[in-house]
Fold these 3 entries.
Entry 1:
Amino acid sequence: MRAYYILIFSWLLCVHGIQAQEENAENFPPPEVPMEISVSRAASPIQIDGRLDEPAWDKVELADDFFRIEPRQGGKVTYKTLVKFLYDDKNLYVSAFCKDSLGIPGIRIQDLRRDFSWGENDIFGVALDPQNLKQYAQGFQTTPYGNQRDFQNFNGNNFDTGWNTLWRVRTQRTDQGFTVEMAIPFKSLRYNLPENGNTIELGMTMVRYARREVEVSTFPAIPQSFTPYRMTYAAKLTDIEVPPPSANIRVEPYTLYQYDENKEGDVLTSKASDPKLGFDVKWAMNPKTVLDLTVNTDFAQADVDRAVNNLERFNIFFPERRQFFLENSGIWAGGLQQSIRPFFSRRIGLQGNFNATPAPIDVGARFTQRTEKNALAGLFVRQRETDGSAGANFGVFRYLRNYGRENNVGVMVTHRLDNEHDDLNLESNNNTTLTVDGQIRPTSQWDIQYILSTSIDEETGETGFAGRFFAGNDSNKFYYGWVTEYTDANYNPRMGFVRQTNVIRHNPGGYFVVRPKKMDWIRRWDPGMFVNYLHDATDPTQFQQASLYIFPIFTWFKDNSFFEVSATPTWQNINFDFAPLGLQIAQDNYYYTRYLVQYNTDQSKKWSGDLGYNFGSFYNGTRNTVNAAARFAPIPHAALALEYEHNTIKDVGIGDSNLTTNLYSANLRLALNPRVQLSTFYQYNSFNEQGRWNARLSWEYMPLSFVYLVFNDTQTDIFDPMQSTRQFIGKITLLKQF
């Protein structure tokens, strides 16, 4: 093991010493004086149809000096992008002509869903920093078929994709490329009021992704190692005359009908039908302050969780999928990391654990205020009592202070009050956490993050502590970083998530970024290594686990297909009761090595697929895992995806047990256009003999107003007789902005 540590630290020193001088010349700092684009008032009405034929577009300042960041930084942009801006009393307008010599045959797009994934489609997008905070952006992106993706971005790398706002976009596809026409209401931007005169300035970046050649270009220039949303590099849109302040209230009532039935074999054991009414309100009290209210909240249209067979000693992180909690989630302490989160919204509105049965939410409120120097936020939710859980109140307070160019420090307090429940023999309980966190960027490529948290639990009478420190250097030629996490045995954030308690974890490592100039078929090769070392927090001399993730082949090819070959030698000390998938592991010391071979084809083509083989020793036996996926998207309006996971486990555990599991998944998505879509998902897990089917039809009949029809069916064959649950939901929402 000592040899592995000598190897990694020698390698990191080599990366830093040999390549730093070359890298400093390429990873340029933000401009002292940002580029400016004067925006004209529209002299005639703009119709959002993607045709760009209105006379108002003719005499407008053009932005076309895009900077290439992929596949190599700098050089001539192959896919030219011509962008113009206009405004009137209600909207900021953006037009773009995205050139492509192949025209319509060159377009790459996988489906028409909203909030599509980056990397699979041709994309044009604009990011706006309405208050010129330099650490915040609102993103608006589209494809050649006009589907929408909107998000908030914090500090250039923390995404809030659950944020939805009112805006319109239409596109047209031609034999010379595609055109884009956007209308972004000023009421959706939260800009500062004019300080002098009646004009404002907006921070702005743009991005074009030409998927066929994996060319990414930005306006203005942003280094390759950063996202296109690093707003310290932003240009400015100037001379925009904003409308005078007015009421800015968004109301979204809904009505819902839900029918549930449960069966054992062919016998109907229960059924229930439940009509429901509720609403959400968003009030922009001023450009800096927003109040959200939700009453009798429902999340029937949210994506269902995917089944997972967990063979590790750590808790599984299930992502939040509910829009009310996703919006503005980036403001809470903890960021994107999945190890220590003092506040994790999946603890709210669910009975028991964060991946359990839903519990009704009576009322919720969220307050957010942002200025150039400060951010203030609060959240309150009342969860209703059910037969399986007590009622509860959840509260979060957050204050964040910005200083310097991209630095901040914050505090956060959470409090959860669980009521007593006589039928479940539960007493009332208070749980509180207090957290201090922050970010420091001494230079544009260095990133330092820290979090310190304590929990106080009334039921156990214990006070616990947790903390995390991260420092990383992200450049065009290499990455290296260090993470240390501490979670003691008493840390219990009952509104949060921890990967493991009673642990100190160290995770140093890094990789080269190699772009071979003489091998055009290789776009990027990132060989590297990471160490993962864990020991007890209670007794730091007590070793838990160590592993090395060594990936000499980690390569993207010219078409963005991907190939990985890696090895993970692992040392484990099992001194607790541990039985993954029911396989009882003896308390002992183990050493084993696992290997991975993974290949993903070009994900933008009509046919695409993934194939991975993970094999090697596993505790005192062996485990071989095959992961396979295939997708067929003959047209953007139809896509079929199939996934398969197979585990063969032999001679593992106290009884030298054998186990075979199969996990099958299928997803079919059909779309008439970006506003009318049918999505179906089926999954069967042989381990617990459970099959789950979810079907959802959605119609966006007006901007952000929907009709949903949802059908859920779950059957578990492991019981005798078979148990099944069926659910049908019809929901109508209406969004009106005043």
Entry 2:
Amino acid sequence: MGANKVLNEVINKVTQAVIERSGTSRQAYLEKIRRAHRPGVSRSHLSCGNLAHGFAASDTHDKSALAIDRAANFAIVSAYNDMLSAHQPFQDYPAQIKEAARELGAVAQFAGGVPAMCDGVTQGREGMELSLFSRDNIAMAAGVALSHDMFDGVLCLGVCDKIVPGLAIGALAFGHLPCLFVPAGPMESGLPNAEKSRIRQLYAEGKVGRAELLKAESESYHSAGTCTFYGTANSNQMLMEIMGMQLPGSSFINPGTPMREAMTRAAVATLNKLSPLSPDFMPLGEMIDEKSIINGIIGLLATGGSTNHTIHLVAIARAAGVIINWQDMAELSEVVPLLCRIYPNGLADVNHFQAAGGMPLLIKELLDNGLLHNDVGTVAGKGGMQRYCEEPFLGDDGELVWRTGPAVSLDPEIIASVAKPFSKEGGLRLMQGNLGRSVIKTSAVKPEYRVLTAPAVIFNDQDEMKARFDSGDLNRDFIAVVRFQGPKANGMPELHKLTPLLGVLQDRGYKVALVTDGRMSGASGKVPAAIHLSPEALDGGPIARLRDGDMIEFDAERSILRVLDEAVLEQPVAIYAGGHQEGMGRELFSCFRKLVSDAEHGASVMDV
């Protein structure tokens, strides 16, 4: 049914606008990757000396296969490290992938590792100021790994916040090659996220100590796998699947299970079918187009995903020559309903989402109601997104097969229908006014908190708020303006330290909101937050002219963000105190702060 459903008029209009806007850049990108493609295996164009270096350390079997020009060679680009729970499972993937490749008469080589930092470890710390920039660093590292020109396809092993977007950007630079993303899956459910959040707020109020807080955090984040709340990491997995870059149903299978290993091996077999030696050859850059990117935005809206992707999706799209902006996202949000309640937008975690029907059900519901492009290329081959309505299972003989997924939600409190959505819109809005442009995710914010007019309280550093909170000075209605947090100033760190403080004040009955040129998005929740404000303070943004007491209208229902007194915009610009230029590796990224684009252009240092 979904393949034949007429596409929603607004989705079609936005898509056509993106196609028209991207005409020149998309054509230039396609011409670039077509020039890079050469018949046969890539290594056949290397000299004997080049090739000898490329397989010198291989075992006898792989060396023999690489010495001839009839076996595909696949690059493994991995974000493995054993400190971060989401990426620790990748330790065993290369051996599994190499074995699966040999069984197919192909070869897989570990081409390179990319950095993998965790916002959960660095939040509130100096290291968080490297986080956003690590995305472009990862893209560059992936490029270095693939620069040896030995490979006929790419397997990207990554899960978390900046890592998947960085790998996607790097892979698209080598868009003449086919590529699959291979996830690791979420950890099993631990302490409920809502209880963890409650303990955090009690700690912020001084009602529990560090021991109680650490116990709650450890019971929540307790084993290998992705954190179970629906932040940027799990939004990444949803995106890769709904954009056709992962196998159907692969996003939320727990690590260390027979199904997870079977899916990893299936990824190798799928890549082999897409290689230049196959009649079904499908390079990544040809596969990912304007409709694929629009599908990603739709998935983000329908699931209430991380607003970090209002930055990352822009950067990924530009890497494929596709130009999108926040206006596109806002227009799509008006017609794409919110179909999922996953923490922080609800009480369920991603394991509960998977049990309720997961991605196959979500995609079916969108297709059946004309809310998703079906006619797109995917790694699953012919059939478009309809293939992604299927779910994997293991037969009695252990063989992996796909069957028709669930037709209705197994828990309507977690996955709703288009007929009875949690909200008729996606909850992502573009806030505009005399302070600039920003985004807000309203899906977790109750309607009564979405509109307020209140005096600004200015902070030039997030740590300043804690002192004001502890003094009792913030027990009132106000709008916290946290500035000099943009990419040019300090790398645009997540401001999660503010979440418990603002949550406590809201629970005390005060009307509060956040306005910032920084990020607080992966785990954004019940407090209204206009984030990614552009232009940022250090780039001459009006936010740098605000003072304590300036009255701000914050209206998420009408998408308005403005200071009421226009004369405020003539006040002198605040002086940036700096102090974020060195230590914890920050001096290594000084060139990034100088070159970075604004948030709506992807906050990127790369000219793509």
Entry 3:
Amino acid sequence: MPDETPNPLNDLLMQVNTPIFAIQTEDGINFISKDNNFFFTAFKENTGQSIKAFVPAVRLENLGDEGFKKRHGLKYPYIAGAMANGITSAAMVKTMAQNGMMGFFGAGGLCLEKIEENIIDLKNSLKNKPFGFNLIHSLGDPDHEMATVNLYLKHKITRISAAAFMRMTPSLVYYRIKGIFEDSKGRIVTPNHIIAKVSRIEVARQFFSPPPEKLVSLLFEKGLITQQEARLSACIPMAQDLTAEADSGGHTDNRPALTLLPTMMALKNEFMETYHYKEPLCVGLAGGVATPESAAAAFGMGAAYILTGSINQSCVEADICDDVKKLLCQAEQADVAMAPAADMFEIGAKVQVLKRGTLFPVRADKLFKLYRAHTSFDDIDEKSKQEIQEKILQTKFEDAWTSTKEFFHKTGNTKEIQRAQNDPKHKMSLVFRSYLGLSSKWAIQGNLERKMDYQIWCGPAIGAFNQWVKGSFLEVHENRKTAEIALNLMFGACVCIRASILKIQGIPLPIGADLFKPMKKKEISFFL
């Protein structure tokens, strides 16, 4: 049983399955918990009392969009987002599925063998419970992107989280439309679902539109899809579900959630009117969701679901070293910075990372500026070259190039090597990118020799979360469990929503009545 609270209204607010009545008496307002029948049985005689306000039950399973939950077999509208290099681990995906939610395994940056190993593990463990894998746009290696899609189709992975896409690609379209058919009632059935993670309007428009005809024709000409699949593709959106990605960790445009979510929802309505899709489109929210208040705000604005990332990285199930988890637990909202992205280095794309306890953002930015200003590594001034080789690469440039070549040989992407041998600027880019790529792996492995170079994808949400859990059992990373945190956020959101309903009816709340502090799963279960 949960700890007793000194505030009786707070206790009533936490009884989320039961309505609350504010009763006006001669002595003031009293709060009681009764079912809806109280409307008809109370005060049959003139007692001088009246119902001043009413708060309905706000159940966890009623948050979000019913269609979204039904489509994916979820009890709760909550997703643990994919963090690349397996940081969103199989263990994290399992615990989400086992608690009525969904997680996406962080397949980005992993080799096909490692991805397949986790596919088999999750399929054997979860059977028909909902889960998914992510697909990050591979700008420089479209063959790997297609190979990953083929792996998902081979193993019948029916949900993917599509991230970092700037335009639709053949592999993404292939995944979406492969296997679609009409059932006996003429309804179009789409076996493969894409949940797109998007922060830009122009990209959201592409995901809410049917697959591009040009790419559909290309796939048909190659014999990858049937004529029926090509024909039916015009009747479905690329993604039924879209996550409005606000100020998040990793790839982000730092969009404010308060402006991004309503814009994406308006876009959703526009495309429903234009295409008359049989199933409604849904928009969820990610980026900055880290407290009960932010979760309540998301659902209050109409989010179909919420998706978290940064806060999950500090949990026990996250496949990253304990040193990183400790740094995350100490982070405040201002302890993040933008740094060049390894996968889209040349075009200047950036990712949001933790800057507290690491020099990675500063060093990565220096590499990018030198790359933009010079045509080759040899053109860089001697002082900068020395700093790069001694402090950042910690080896001679040519030795770093040898290691980089070996990586591309191993992955089969020899086109990059050939291009670099003819273009010294591209050679410089690949070596600098190798540092960016390795820095995230050092953080996962806990390579203490490279601790100051850890690349830790993180948004300001972690700072808000740390402030909320300060002084509670969730303050330390050893106690942070992904599903338990998710239940806290949703249960706390229900408490916040109920408190807001009282406020908008003109009922002043006692100090602290609307506050929700972290509780253990078994304590939350008492109220459910």
